[in-house]
Amino acid sequence: MSCCIQRNPGVPEACGLTASEAAMYMAGVKTAMDEAAKEEEAPVIWDDAHNGDLPEWRRECIRFYGDCKTEPGWTGPCYECLRRCEAQEEWPVSMCKPGRKTRRK
């Protein structure tokens, strides 16, 4: 329906709608698009409540591993860093870390 309305701006009758029906339909489309944009902009927050019984150092290892695997720009072998973190109880920032942010001129 939205394609028909966009192809025939100002002529909702061409799509079998009244002007008010077309306006309501497009308002719904805009609301859906706005909600989708909000979801894309929202920062990723790790919900690790299910790991509440683990020691904090272990939860931190898991969070760093998740960031390493999913965030762009991280360098290093994520799985090896997770294993080292589990052994040393500290994330090995010398092996796995976020990349440097470059400045634009």
How would you summarize the topology of this molecule?
Blueprint (H helix, E strand, L loop, with lengths): L1 H6 L11 H23 L14 H15 L3 E2 L2 H11 L8 E2 L7
Antiparallel strand pairs: 1-2
Helix pairs in contact: 3-4
Largest sheet: 2 strands, antiparallel
Instruction: List the strand order in the largest sheet.
Output: 1-2
- Determine the N-to-C terminus distance: 44 Å
Individual helix count = 4
The number of distinct structural domains comes to: 2
Order of helices and strands: HHHEHE
Percent in helix: 40-55%
Which term fits the overall shape? Answer: elongated
Poorly predicted spans:
none
Integer-rounded radius of gyration: 24 Å
Work out the strand percent: under 5%
Structural class: mainly alpha
Number of strands: 2
The overall pLDDT average reads 81
Q: Key features?
A:
105 residues; mainly alpha; two-stranded antiparallel ribbon; elongated
Summarize the structure.
The chain contains four helices and two strands. With 105 residues, the chain is mainly alpha-helical.
Please, could you describe this protein's structure?
The protein has 105 residues and is mainly alpha-helical. The chain has two domains: 2-41; 49-98, no CATH class. Helix content is 52%, strand content 4%. The protein has four helices and two strands, in the order αααβαβ. The protein has helices at 2-7, 19-41, 56-70, 78-88, and strands at residues 74-75, 97-98. It is elongated, with a radius of gyration of 24 Å. The two termini are 44 Å apart.
